[in-house]
């Protein structure tokens, strides 16, 4: 009888250990990225951030970002900015890898292999200060909605275009605000390879071609469209149900972006 209780105790302990391990694996574990994401979501603009008092002789105090870049750099030095679209799931670091533009197609923001990849730009075509005429940010389409999986659903009609009008990019020393003017299906060609946005005519030709598309899922506010002096931000992902096309969310940089 004692032996039976003894064996039962061992089996029960083993079962509890297995259950604990499974529960632990299922729980979301905190990383620098998840901590920063929570901080960005909690930092409501502009009401939650108290207005800073001017410094000596009316100078403004240094900009304080809600993003803890030091923590992110300890995790992965390829992180250089943070992308946030209020009201959507898009709340991720932006990465760029020197000498390997496609690295983050199949690696996550911690640098680990991951079919979902990460949000990234290509060093061959874009710098890290968003001063280029057009900055192209890539992210995978996913059925779960993570990465850029929710972009097409969010911007496929004018109501969504209005609701999710603002895109914010956080940098260590400033934040950039963009106004979305289009969400459109587009061809699969490499935009920054085929279009020289430093040339006003080619800049204008690309925008006109993109916003002229007539298709399910296309949403355009022509009144909010850019001039050739505006800095463009283009989010690019796969078009749902069509592997030969892309879905683009296009925005222009606003004025009055905060910095030091």
Could you walk me through the main structural features you see in this protein, from its secondary elements to its overall organization?
The chain is of the alpha+beta class and 260 residues long. The protein has a single domain (32-45, 62-253), classed as Sortase (Sortase, Chain: A, Beta Barrel), CATH 2.40.260. The chain is 27% helix and 22% strand. The protein contains seven helices and nine strands. The protein has helices at 2-26, 32-42, 69-75, 151-155, 158-163, 191-194, 200-211, and strands at residues 79-84, 91-95, 119-120, 134-138, 166-170, 175-187, 219-220, 232-239, 242-253. Strands 1, 2, 3, 4, 5, 6, 7, 8 and 9 form a nine-stranded mixed β-sheet that branches. It is globular. The termini are far apart.
Write a compact overview of the structure shown.
This protein has 260 residues and is of the alpha+beta class. 27% of the residues lie in helices and 22% in strands.
Layout of secondary structure:
Elements: H1 2-26, H2 32-42, H3 69-75, E1 79-84, E2 91-95, E3 119-120, E4 134-138, H4 151-155, H5 158-163, E5 166-170, E6 175-187, H6 191-194, H7 200-211, E7 219-220, E8 232-239, E9 242-253
Parallel strand pairs: 2-3, 4-8
Antiparallel strand pairs: 1-2, 1-5, 5-6, 6-7, 6-9, 8-9
Task: Characterize the main sheet.
Answer: 9 strands, mixed
Strand tally is 9
Task: Look up the CATH topology.
Answer: Sortase, Chain: A
Kindly estimate the percentage of residues that lie in beta strands according to DSSP: 15-25%
Order of helices and strands: HHHEEEEHHEEHHEEE
Would you identify the CATH H-level superfamily? Sortase
Compute the separation of the termini in Å: 76 Å
Mean pLDDT: 86
Class per helix and strand makeup: alpha+beta
Domain unit count: 1
Unreliable runs, pLDDT <50, ≥5 residues? 10-28, 46-52
Please give the share of residues in helix: 25-40%
Cα-based radius of gyration, to the nearest Å: 22 Å
Query: What is the CATH architecture term?
Result: Beta Barrel
Number of helices: 7
CATH class: Mainly Beta
Shape: globular
């Amino acid at each position: 009888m004692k032996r039976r209780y003894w064996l039962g105790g061992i089996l029960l302990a083993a079962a509890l250990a297995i259950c604990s391990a499974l529960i632990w694996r299922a729980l979301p574990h905190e990383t620098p990225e998840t901590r920063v994401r929570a901080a960005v979501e909690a930092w409501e603009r502009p009401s939650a951030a108290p207005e800073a008092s001017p410094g000596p002789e009316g100078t403004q105090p240094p900009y304080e970002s809600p993003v803890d870049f030091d923590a992110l750099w300890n995790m992965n030095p390829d992180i250089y900015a943070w992308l946030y679209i209020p009201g959507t799931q898009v709340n991720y670091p932006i990465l760029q890898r020197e000498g390997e533009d496609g690295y983050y197609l199949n690696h996550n923001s911690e640098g680990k292999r991951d079919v979902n990849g990460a949000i990234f730009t290509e060093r061959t075509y874009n710098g890290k200060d968003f001063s280029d005429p057009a900055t192209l940010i890539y992210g995978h389409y996913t059925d779960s909605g993570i990465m850029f999986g929710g972009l097409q659903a969010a911007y496929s009609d004018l109501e969504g275009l209005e609701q999710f009008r603002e895109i914010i990019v956080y940098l260590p020393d400033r934040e950039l605000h963009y106004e979305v003017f289009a969400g459109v299906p587009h061809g699969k060609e490499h935009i920054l390879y085929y279009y020289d946005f430093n040339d006003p005519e080619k800049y204008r030709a690309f925008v006109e071609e993109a916003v002229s598309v007539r298709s399910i899922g296309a949403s355009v506010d022509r009144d909010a469209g850019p001039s050739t002096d505006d800095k463009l931000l283009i989010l690019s992902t796969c078009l749902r149900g069509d592997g030969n096309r892309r879905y683009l969310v296009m925005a222009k940089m606003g004025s009055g972006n905060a910095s030091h």
